[in-house]
C-alpha cells in the first residue's frame, strides 16, 4: 500500500510541477511503468485499462482538434464579438453573456477546449475595451470557473465524463437525459453567484464600438457556414452512436479528421495533428494503471466501505457526500485520478445517483484550487503569457467561497 501510494504521489508531483518541461503523459507513463515493474499491476490489468480509456481519450482529442480548426477560421472570435455586442454597452450584461458563452463552449467543445480557446480571445477583447486589470481578472476567473462547472451535459464535455460513462456502460442518451438539468442549474447558479462576487469590479458601461466587426475575423465565410451544419450533424451522430452501440470516438475523432480535411485551405493539417494533445492518451492510461495499483492494494476498498456506510445512513446524504469527497480529492490531487479512484470505489455499490455525483464533484470541485483541473492550469498559464498574473491568493479567495456553494446546488438536482 505504501509503495503504491508513493508512486501515485511522486507521479502527481511530476505532473503538476513538470520539471524541465517533462510532459504530463510522460510522467504518468513513468509512474505506470514503475507500478508494472514492481508487480502492483499485471499485463491483464493493463489490457483491461486500455479497453476502458481508449474511446474516451480518442474522443477527447477529436473534440480538441475540431475546436482548434474552428478557432483558426475565427469561429469563436466571431461568436465572442457577437455576444459582446449583444450586451449593448452594459458591463453587467457583458459579464453574464461571457459566462453563458463559456458554458456553451464547455458543453460542446469540452472544458479544456473552452479554457484553451476562449481565454486568449476573451483577454484580447477585454483589452480592446480598455477595461482595468481588476475587471479583466474578474472576467477571466469567471470564464475559467464556468469552463469546468458547465462541462456536464454530454459525455464529451469532459474527459472525466467519458471515462466514467465508458466504465459504467452509460449510453450517450441516458447520460444526457440525467445530466442536462444539472448542467442548466450549474450555469444559472454559477452566473448568479459569480456576478454577486465580482459585481464591484464590473463597470456599468462599456464602449462596444471599440470592438471590430465580427465578420472581419472570419477567414473563410463558406467554411464558417459549413461549420454550423457540420456541428449539428456531429451532435446527431452522437445519438446515433448510442442507439447502434458505436464507440463515441468513431464520430468525435473521425468527424474531426473529416473537418480537418475540409479546412485544408485555412489550416496547416500537419501542424494541427502534430500539436493535438496526444499526451492525453498516455496521461489517461498511465494514471489509470497507477490508480489500479492502489485498487489492487486495497485503497479503493476502504473508500467503498466509507461510501457504503454513508449510503446505509441516508441515500440523499450519500449523494452529497460522494460529490464532496470527489470534489475535495479533485481539488487536492487533480480531477482525473480522483474520478478513476471514485469510479473503481463505486463499482460494487451500484447506486446510479452516486455515479453522477462523482462526475459533478470531479468537474466542479477541482475549481477550489488552481491545480485541481487541467483547464484551470491552462487558463492561468495563458493569462500569465499575456501579462496577467493571477496570484494563488487571488485565486483561492474567490474559488474557496464559490465552488462549494455551486457544487451543493448542482448535487441537489440528483436528489
UniProtKB/TrEMBL annotation:
Listed InterPro entries: Arsenical_pump_ArsB
Domain of life: Bacteria
Subcellular location: Cell membrane
An example Gene Ontology biological process: response to arsenic-containing substance
Transmembrane segments: 25-43, 52-70, 99-123, 135-154, 180-198, 223-240, 246-263, 275-294, 317-336, 395-414
One GO cellular component term: plasma membrane
GO terms of molecular function: arsenite transmembrane transporter activity
Task of the protein: Involved in arsenical resistance. Thought to form the channel of an arsenite pump.
Protein name per UniProt: Arsenical pump membrane protein
Organism listed in the record: Lebetimonas natsushimae
Organism lineage: Bacteria, Pseudomonadati, Campylobacterota, Epsilonproteobacteria, Nautiliales
Amino acid at each position: 500500500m505504501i509503495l503504491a501510494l508513493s508512486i501515485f504521489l511522486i507521479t502527481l508531483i511530476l505532473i503538476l510541477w513538470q520539471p524541465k518541461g517533462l510532459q504530463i503523459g510522460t510522467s504518468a507513463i513513468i509512474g505506470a511503468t514503475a507500478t508494472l515493474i514492481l508487480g502492483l499491476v499485471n499485463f491483464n490489468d493493463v489490457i483491461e485499462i486500455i479497453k476502458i480509456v481508449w474511446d474516451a481519450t480518442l474522443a477527447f482529442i477529436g473534440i480538441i482538434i475540431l475546436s482548434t480548426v474552428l478557432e483558426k477560421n475565427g469561429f469563436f472570435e466571431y461568436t465572442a464579438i457577437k455576444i459582446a455586442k449583444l450586451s449593448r454597452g452594459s458591463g453587467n450584461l457583458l459579464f453574464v453573456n461571457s459566462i453563458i458563452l463559456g458554458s456553451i463552449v464547455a458543453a460542446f467543445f469540452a472544458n479544456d477546449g473552452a479554457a484553451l480557446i476562449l481565454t486568449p480571445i476573451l483577454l484580447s477583447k477585454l483589452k480592446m475595451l480598455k477595461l482595468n486589470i481588476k475587471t479583466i481578472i474578474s472576467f477571466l476567473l469567471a470564464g475559467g470557473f464556468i469552463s469546468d462547472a458547465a462541462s456536464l451535459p454530454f459525455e464529451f464535455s469532459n474527459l472525466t465524463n467519458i471515462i466514467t460513462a465508458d466504465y459504467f456502460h452509460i449510453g450517450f442518451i441516458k447520460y444526457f437525459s440525467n445530466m442536462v438539468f444539472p448542467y442548466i442549474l450549474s450555469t444559472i447558479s454559477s452566473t448568479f453567484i459569480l456576478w454577486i462576487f465580482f459585481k464591484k469590479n464590473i463597470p456599468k458601461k462599456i464602449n462596444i464600438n471599440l470592438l471590430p466587426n465580427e465578420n472581419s475575423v472570419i477567414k473563410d465565410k463558406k467554411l464558417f457556414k459549413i461549420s454550423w451544419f457540420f456541428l449539428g450533424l456531429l451532435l446527431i451522430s452522437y445519438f446515433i452512436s448510442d442507439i447502434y452501440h458505436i464507440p463515441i470516438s468513431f464520430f468525435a475523432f473521425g468527424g474531426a479528421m473529416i473537418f480537418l480535411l475540409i479546412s485544408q485551405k485555412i489550416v496547416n493539417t500537419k501542424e494541427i495533428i502534430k500539436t493535438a494533445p496526444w499526451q492525453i492518451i498516455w496521461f489517461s492510461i498511465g494514471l489509470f494503471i497507477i490508480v489500479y495499483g492502489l485498487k489492487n492494494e486495497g485503497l479503493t476498498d476502504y473508500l467503498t466501505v466509507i461510501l457504503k456506510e454513508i449510503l446505509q445512513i441516508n441515500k440523499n446524504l450519500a449523494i452529497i457526500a460522494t460529490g464532496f469527497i470527489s470534489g475535495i480529492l479533485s481539488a487536492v490531487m487533480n480531477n482525473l485520478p480522483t474520478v478513476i479512484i471514485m469510479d473503481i470505489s463505486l463499482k460494487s455499490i451500484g447506486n446510479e445517483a452516486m455515479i453522477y455525483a462523482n462526475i459533478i464533484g470531479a468537474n466542479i470541485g477541482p475549481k477550489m484550487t488552481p491545480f485541481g483541473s487541467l483547464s484551470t492550469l491552462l487558463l492561468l498559464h495563458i493569462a500569465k503569457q499575456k501579462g496577467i498574473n493571477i496570484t494563488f491568493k487571488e485565486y483561492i479567495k474567490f474559488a474557496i467561497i464559490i465552488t462549494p456553494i455551486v457544487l451543493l446546488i448542482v448535487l441537489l438536482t440528483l436528489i
